Amino acid sequence: MTTFVPALRISAARGAALLCAAALVTAAHPAHAGINVWTNHGRNDLVVRALASDPVTPGTLYAASVDGIFKTTDAGSTWDPTGLTNLSISALAIDPLTPSTLYAGTGGYDAAIADIVFKSTDAGATWTAPEPAATKSSASTGSAGDFIEVSALVIDPSNPATIYAGATYHGVVKSIDAGVNWDATGLINTFVFALAIDPSMPSTLYAVTPDGVLKSTDAAATWSTTGLTRTFAAMSALGIDPITPSTFYVGTGGGPLGGVFKSTDAGVSWSRADAGLADTEVRALAIAPGALYAATDGGVFKSTDGGVTWGAANRGLTNTDAHALAIDPIMPSILYAGTNGGGVFSIQQVPGCTGDCRLDGAVTVDDLVAGVAVALGRHPLDVCPSFDTGQDHRATIDELIAAVRNALSGCRTAGLSGTLFVTDARANKVHSIDAASGEILASTDTGQHLIGVEKANGKVYVANESSGSISVLDAATLSPLSIIPACAQVHHTGISPDGTRFYAACYSTNKVAVIDTDTDALIGLLTSGMPSAVTHQPWPTRDGKRLWAANQATNDVTEIDLQTGAILRTFPLMAVPIEIAVSSDARRAYVSAPFQNTIMVFDLEADQLVAQPTIAAPDNLILSPDGHTLLVSGAGSSNAAAAWIVNTDTLAPFEVILPGTEAAHIDLTPDAKFGFVSLVGPPHGIAVLDIARATVHALYPIPEAVAPHGVRYAPGLP
Known about the structure:
Helix content: under 10%
Largest sheet: 7 strands, antiparallel
Distance between the termini: 42 Å
CATH topology of the domain at 427-439 and 573-718: Methylamine Dehydrogenase, Chain H
Structural class: mainly beta
CATH architecture of the domain at 427-439 and 573-718: 7 Propeller
Number of strands: 55
Radius of gyration: 29 Å
Strand content: 35-45%
């Protein structure tokens, strides 16, 4: 204890007392499902041999097992058998250009069904295979009763009709017609345990064999040795850096020479890269931006320094006999692990402030207790990974001091400042929250069934749906200023670009209420559609001249002239619209249609629908000022709370799974670096999104919240 106390007294006397108490106490912490903790959603009886993620469709994953291939389309929540069952599958590959095409290699003791490559062209629904001997070369196929298998499959990324298969006894075979015919290559009469292809130079391949790592630079016609030979422990895994393909890693079996070896010169020379991982049997390797992972007989290990040091990443991994890894190609913060008899686990790794074990935006006494236990070696680091801000797989005195500071002053997010205003629809409360730390700045009771919220002129405007009024509060203190009678069921809201007008949809009618934010008086009601419209949300344009409205009951959106009040255009949708967002140049509009699982994209100059990207039950929308980022909240592909980040140039959606089952209103910082999602809960609070990384950056709980609903970001503190 004396190692820690003096240094801590320098920064905070209270911190020293907390850490002294921590030496005697241990604590267990709940974690939000899937965020920095492994979760297993089902089929935990599967013996998994390989994993493959769909490179285009988020949440679609295939698991090769001793009982066939299983598929999930909801990020692991449910698994269904494909058309290939009752066979032991040892290798799996997905066509990178046509993801509905898959290849699967079998293994076993029966030569009639083992050592075969099956193919599916309909995302696993049906499978075909060549003649049983089609994947055999002229090499030996072993003795009767031997275990034979296709151990590895790789696809040429530039020409997916070219496939390589590594197998026991007959080396590497090759198909140049998408798996119809197979021929021997220059590597025969040997075992191949793993294969890798250089993504920048597909004619270059590496093979792990009993003789070490071999290399081909002519599409497998000839092979030569590298600097890693059979003098080392048995090798079984191979991982190539997709960004720097001259760097790759080899995992080996257990024992004194077990661990990971690394080459940074395309195999010419090698060095050990396994501090913290030595004497471990490495079965699979996976590489993500800034991280290297190893599946081992002791669980999953992670390195953030290119293999120099490793640490266990097993929090929540109830089966540590890991055999396969897959990184989500669209959201690389999500990692999947296949286990021996425990099925598939998944984890979303989110950085938090130092000491925030539960990623709830605060460092508690229990968190400090955990940190001290980790520093003393009493608990593994994965009890609280947020203490490892130095990425050295340990908790240091400096990190403990930083955690104490965060406990006393609150966690803050670098590059983020400002205030969040949040309504609670059921508790009838409004909160102001420091956007960088999650600290509750002020709270107040007001209105009935609070929905939308906006800030303008140093005031906060809140839609009280049940009372049909607008509460006006002081932005700094949330002190009540006035109540403005508006219209029936005021619902979603908007603010004019200059802040002089507040708009609220009158949900049970065809009206939008307009409030003057200088006088806090109701100017009037705009007609937003037919009498039965049920207007859900207004969207004022950036030039302040138009207002768009989403009308649920009449299935249309309308454009209103704010000078005359006239409806200029009506777009019938054949779908129920929830919200609309219009680009600053007024050329494009986005409409959420949850019952059709799509965002409808309109060209406003041509007055036509131009695209409908698929998004599971989209609800609320917010568009960045530059028009390049669209943030969407909804139910998500796994019936959990989710947000979708859409690049409007490509319309490619990136799903971020959130804690809980319901996400409500959303907002973006003006530079679109961070997004905010109101979580109805549980947990109740705000999820902060890192837009560029498509990950949850932080979670801000709101104590005593019942149903957080509206959220609005404002630069600066009140």
